[in-house]
Write a structure and sequence with these properties.
The chain has about 220 residues and is of the alpha/beta class. The chain has helices at about 10-15, 20-25, 35-50, 55-65, 70-80, 155-170, 180-185, 185-195, 205-215, and strands at about 115-125, 130-140, 145-150, 175, 200. It has a five-stranded mixed β-sheet with strand order 3-2-1-4-5, sandwiched between helices. Helix 4 (about 55-65) crosses helix 5 (about 70-80). The longest helix is centred in the N-terminal third of the chain and has 16 residues, at about 35-50.
Length: about 220
Amino acid sequence: MIDRTHTLLVARQCRLLRLARSTVYYQPTPVSDTALALMRRIDAPDLQYPFAGARMLRALLRQEGHGVGRRQVATLMRRMGIMAIYRKPRTSQRHPIHRIYPYLLRQLTITRPNHVWAADITYIPMRRGFVYLCAILDWASRRVLACRLSNTLTTGFCLAAVQEAISRYGAPEIFNTDQGCQLTSQEFTGLLNDHGIQISMDGTVARQRLRRTVVAEPQI
């Protein structure tokens, strides 16, 4: 865009193009051999520990004798286009047109199996990327009744988990979920209605209790 052989001064060309003059004179700085070596070392543990952030990678590099700081590791990670894989907030996105059912479990005593089930979606970090997990939980026995894995966040694998749980244990009286769009979809709520199951929805309770149970007592 800038023609240094033109009769117009470079400064004038920059003003006409609304460019900063510093961009014209900037010369890219090559990556140093030390930085390249560190990037190669960062890449190896990142594949082994995809959940590792700058602090953890810094600790791993220091164990190997590299005197590197957290900010330098973070800078190199950005340059390499890698980041720690962990559970992000707002994985349960409410759909604006889906019906939201009332919460039915307030002050309800749950003492027997098949009284109340719950479902939730989370994701599991893998060596490369992650997969989604949908689990069905009986709140009385705290047992995971069925689960399904998927590499896409669709409704299909949630339906498959519910259908397996119902086929193995029968239908519950109440099914509680959060307000994620997969669990409020017509396909999901229609399946529950077809089996005469009361639907209960809550934003946090089902998710928190289910995740504590799946982590503490993984019974499949």
